Amino acid sequence: MTEIVEMRSSAPDPATAQALADLLVAERLAACVQCLSGLASTYRWDGGIQHEQEILLLAKTTAARLPALMARLRAAHPYDVPEILATPTTADEPYAAWVAEQTTAAGG
Asked: Which of the residues 5, 17, 24, 38 could staple to 30 if both were Cys, CB 3.0 to 4.6 A apart?
């Protein structure tokens, strides 16, 4: 069974989120990226507490493609230190096979 990973990140606005999602899918680093609006983030940055509205990105990939996905997202992201977190998941085999197929160079 292919090990599927869900990677999450955040973007400052819908246009940036969509551009990052398109990039990751187009380059076959992710089979699917969901962009969820309505994220309210509170964090410490530059010595103070910040409050921002963001878009949450959830990308589905394989464990094998994760390092390349993370590197590409880091390079393309507008934040100095983007959130890039990954969690292994348990996926139904047909879905896992689809993710694997969509994240290979030949792809579907």
From this structure: 24
Q: Which pLDDT belongs to residue 1?
A: 74
Flag whether the pTM goes above 0.90.
yes
The token duo for 54 is 């963001």
Phi-psi region of 85 (alpha: psi -120 to 50; beta: other; left: phi over 0): beta
- Cα–Cα distance for residue pair 3/104, rounded to 1 Å: 14
CB 84 within 8 A of CB 69: no
pLDDT tens, 56-98? Answer: 999 999 999 999 999 999 999 999 999 999 999 999 999 999 9
Measure the N-to-C terminal CA separation of the chain; round to a whole number of Å: 18
| Cβ 9 vs Cβ 84: under 8 Å | yes
- Order of strands across the sheet that contains 4-11: 32-45, 48-62, 4-11, 85-89
pLDDT over 70 (residue 107): no
Quick check: 8 and 39 in contact, CB under 8 A?
A: no
